[in-house]
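Hi support team,

I submitted a single chain yesterday and got back a structure, but I'm not sure I'm reading the token output correctly. Could someone confirm the output below corresponds to the sequence I sent? I've pasted both exactly as they appear in my results page.

Thanks,
R.
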Amino acid sequence: MKILNSKNQNFDKLLGSLLLKRKKRLQTNSVSVTRIIYDVKRNGDKALLKYEKRFNKNNVIVPKNKQINKSIKSLDKKIKKAIDDAYNRIYKFHSLQKFKNISYKDKYKNKIEYKYLPLESVCLYVPGSTASYPSTVLMNAIPAIIAKVKRIVMINPGYKGKQNAAVLYAAKLCGISEIYSIGGPSAIAAVTFGTKKIKPVDKIVGPGNAYVAAAQRSVSGEVGIPALTAGPSEILIIADKSSNPEWLASDLVSQAEHDVLAQCILISKDKNILIKTKKEIFKQLKVLPRSLIAKKSLMTNGILMNVSSDKKIIDIINKIGPEHLEINIKNYKSLLPKIKNAASICCGKYAVMSMTDMGVPGSNHVLPVNNTSRYASGLNVSEFVKNISYITLSKIGMEKHRPSAITLANFEGLAGHDQSIKKRIRRK
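Hi R., thanks for writing in. Yes, this is the structure output for that exact sequence:
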């Protein structure tokens, strides 16, 4: 892991270069992704099955209900209970995000209504293949359920014809019956354009690897894609001399194990904390099942920063806009008002990102990455609704507001607008 010192004259340049390198890595796959999307759009299920066989060793796109039920039945009761508990916590928090319709009426009886309607159909992308994330099923599905989306589809890449039992159980718990054993860019294309076996959807949500993120960007406009960029994970931790290096290392490693393109950053004014944490990281990697993934992530994208002031730390946070921010210091409250760009902030030594990933607080872990927290938020109920304006104008209302409307229409060179207004108030 690289160690940067903010007192170095080239610090900002070096940091910018490291961040840019990762960003470029995330975008390098766009050409191959475009080809896959075009192939599925043109050749449908034939192309989709071809890519499933190639990348996921799958021969089946639509798993049978008998197979799903059999898989769920084999799942350990403790895991089922953990999923049930997470469901309840996530549902409770997200149910507070419901929207209220707005109605306004002026003295001329002009009426404007603003009504929220659920989307008709959405697709939940749940990463899979050799890994399994039942928590991501819950994070994607529950806001859609609360929004009252009619058709909820789950795509989850199985591996060698099998999907994870915990993922299937979470889907069943959420009432999802339309499940496809597909993943990657080809899956994104299938639910965007439709095939004989799969009907298209109105919106796709959910995180994925760099290929999936590139595919979502490519089909944006053909199908709804959230403003957030959901992709390989990020964590930025702020530590001080009171922080526990063992804890810090475990938080960094837990994020790095997600993906080789995950980014883990540790910042401290205390250089000793950085040195001790680095040693502890390598110690923990020796016993980590996904150590190869985590090590590559940390060696390629990991950064340790010795920063001299709180002001500089704040500047770095707002520049990076991390997906997960852990403020593991005593005076974390003093920093919070100044942080503008971060998707999710864990405050204090016991608020650990791994707990939020598992749905313990009830917050959503589908979050913006790659600096998109500057303008985007984590997945929430608002992603599954749209609004429509209903406008009723009275005759007297038109007459009273006619002069200003006509003035603006003529100023903008829109003579047709002028006539449209005049024809409705012309006196016989």
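A quick pointer for reading it: The mean pLDDT is 92. Let us know if anything else looks off.

Best,
Support desk
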